[in-house]
Amino acid sequence: MYTISQVASLLKAESKLVNTNAVIEQLLTDSRRLIFPETTLFFAIISQRRNAHAFISELYERGVRNFVVHKTYEVSAFENANFIFVDDTLAALQSLCAYHRKQFNYPVIAITGSNGKTIVKEWLYQLLSPEYNIVRSPRSYNSQLGVPLSVWQMNDDFNLAIFEAGISMPGEMQKLADILQPNTGIFTNIGNAHDENFASLQQKTEEKCKLFATCETVIVNGDDDLILKILSQQSKAEFITWGNDKSNSIQILSQQKKEHETIIELQYQNKKDKLVIPFTDEASVQNSISCTVTLLYFKIPVEVINERLQSLQSIDMRLQLIPAINNCALINDSYSFDIVSFSVALDFMQQQNQYTEKTVILSDMPGADNKGAYAEIIFMLKARSIQKVIVIGEQWNTYFPFLKDAIIDVAYFSSTIEFLNKFLANHFRNQLILLKGARRFHFENIASVLQQKVHRTVMEINLTAITNNLNAYRKILNPGVKIMAMVKASGYGSGSAEIANVLQYHKADYLAVAYADEGVDLRKANIRLPIMVMNMDEDAFEAVIQYNLEPEIYSVNIFKSFDAFLDKQGLQLYPVHIKLDTGMHRLGFGMNEINELIDLLKNSNRLVVKSVFSHLAAGEDADEDAFTLLQAEKFKDACNKIESAISYPFTKHLSNSAASFRLPQLQFDMVRLGIGLYGIDSSNSKKLLLQPAATLKTTIAQIRKVESGDTVGYNRRGKIDADAMIATLRIGYADGLRRSLSNGIGKVFIRGKFAPVVGAIAMDMTMVDVTNIPGAEEKDEAEIFGNNISVTEVAKNCGTIPYEILTAISQRVKRIYIEE
């Protein structure tokens, strides 16, 4: 695309170039996603949580020779490398991609709004693909980083671009508008997302509307007076409006919801037409209308639009890791296939180190019947050390010989039907499988045969939320403070190995488990981070040594026992963590035992102290801060004595999730994050902006009418005062739903409304009242806790704490891991 000297010139920046003709094809901002080092330009982005200059040495060792760095960065240690020096590396990335955008004259559609951006983008991609070869934002790449990286994909092979733009703070949209320079805009809606960062709804709307300042056409819901007013002030575009008001360009005359579809009568250009939308929920209907209006603008006839709408499916934009047959796991990413989203899926796959064998199932790539695209796919597979590849589609028949040369275990099928006809379950055992295909190949049928069949109650773990929460805490930590992440009790019910892999990928410093066998399981899952074992006993000594775990030493007896065991093994300088009791009175050396501890440490060369720590009794409770600070003083005094005696430094840690935020002066060298990682703010600060990581949900098995005066459930405890519609859910106390939520104390969330529990919760089933939920039907999803009902609220209703709710979810409940 460009040479490094051209990039330096475009950025008007100083540079130190040893190879001015070095070709730049890939832009990189995350060192973990390097694929093509020779043609990669790395931008060392500086953010609140990380300075990417720290990864330049690693990238240099891996073959990267082109870098954009801050002007003060010292580069003398890197021979034969090209450096461009700038004031702001993110701004430089945006500037380069804005220039790149200007090199292409085909239409660019830009989409913004509070919700629906990604769905509208993906549906437009499907609906317009017959007429256009489309480049689009991969997944939800709509941020200050995502937008420029999306635009960088533009080349002469395409004739239409569809990008989404999202903002979370004032001042961001203008930068995205300068990069995208769209011809056509779509404003989906305005809602309450990121309200906390804007002074008012009007300010947020004004910011979003900046995207459309130079558009020729903007498609918008004309019934939203605020959006229309601000757009009229900020843009000279032609507005194509839709809505119920007769002033709209396209008027919705009527809307009729049936069992599985919505029929809309609309009027435009003095004629009436019917639109048949294969959805009934309001969000999907509105997104479908936005897409329809866009297709009308592109002069697609209504009858063609109706035909194409029927092929649309609800799109889950998240990567899912779900249990599969024969002890396998499946990453189901089967709705689309392009180079960037394939790279993202491979990255997600690489995080899951607990699987030693990895299999990728691929379809043909839409619109990419050329050797270069398939060569890139094959290179990516080889670079990620994928052991087994199955390809499906006629185009792969041409490129299959090249694949065989790169990957040892390969198979080819001409169609999905052929693969399913020849499918043998015993060919898939103890492996991680990535399913990546274009929509027309219907890979959902492959997912169906691979997926483990269990009952429909699931706990969904959002790995992106856990990453967000990890970074939220990083932002409030003092410089240099490390993070120990607690993954005990199967990751608070969420799954130890899966959570640990994410934490390892995002560079947590330490993990902690309750018992040695939990640590052993993590080592077997290829977790390489140091792991502290908190509850040690003599039976665990052998496993601790064998699997390189680091024990907590909390008493004189356990010190002497472990010291003697190390002596028998001939081991020296084994890392341990010393637990002090400063007031919790559970485990730990008391303050009156410090001198004895010091004597033990001075008389043994078999143990080396990695850290000294204590446990706060009430770190989340402001009323107990005096006691907490007293604990901290005792801790500091004891640490000073130990450090003076043994004459070498060690890590000190005291704070849990709540204290890390509430009492930053107690962060010491490291903090221990537990429940906060899962989105529960035990400090009640409401300023950390944590995201709930776990969602427990089930489905409706049956709905029946129960007449007034009748009863529901065991012991007739559910009294019905008026005729009611009662839904039976596939969840009970054997799944971890507490019986204390019976008889209206608990509730669930169905179709945007709350449904109270009726009667007593049974072992496998729960009944709820859906009388006031129009359209509720069997197989509908019911949220027990998640984004709409918090774990904290459920715990409060049960008279307990969120920890107990999360850890009590039964292992028979399938865990599904997603990345957004």
Features:
alpha/beta, 14-stranded mixed beta sheet, 26 helices
Task: Note the topology.
Layout (H helix, E strand, L loop, with lengths): L1 E2 H7 L3 E3 L6 E2 L1 E3 L11 E4 L12 H6 L4 E5 L11 E5 L2 H13 L6 E5 L4 H12 L5 E3 L9 H6 L8 E5 L8 H8 L3 E4 L13 H9 L7 E5 L3 H10 L3 E6 L6 E8 L4 E7 L2 E7 L4 H16 L4 H8 L9 E6 L3 E6 L5 H13 L5 E7 L7 H13 L4 E5 L1 H13 L2 E5 L2 H6 L9 E6 L7 H7 L7 E5 H14 L5 E5 L1 H5 L3 H10 L4 E4 L2 H9 L6 E3 L7 H6 L3 E4 L2 H14 L4 E7 L13 H9 L4 E8 L10 H22 L4 E3 L3 H6 L7 E4 L20 E13 L4 E2 L5 E2 L4 E6 L17 E4 L2 E6 L7 E4 L11 E5 L5 H8 L3 H6 L6 E6 L1
Parallel strand pairs: 4-5, 5-6, 6-7, 8-10, 8-11, 9-10, 11-12, 12-13, 13-14, 18-22, 19-20, 19-22, 20-21, 23-40, 24-25, 24-31, 25-26, 26-27, 27-28, 28-29, 29-30
Antiparallel strand pairs: 1-3, 2-7, 14-15, 15-16, 17-18, 17-40, 23-32, 32-35, 32-39, 33-34, 35-38, 36-37, 37-38
Helix pairs in contact: 3-6, 4-9, 7-8, 11-12, 12-13, 22-23
Terminal residue distance: 30 Å
How much of the sequence is in beta strands? Answer: 15-25%
Uncertain spans: none
Number of H- or I-type helical stretches: 26
Radius of gyration: 29 Å
What number is the mean pLDDT? 90
Give the fraction of residues assigned to helices. 25-40%
Derived from helix and strand composition plus strand pairing, the structural class reads: alpha/beta
Largest sheet: 14 strands, mixed
Number of strands: 40
Q: Which word captures the global form? A: globular
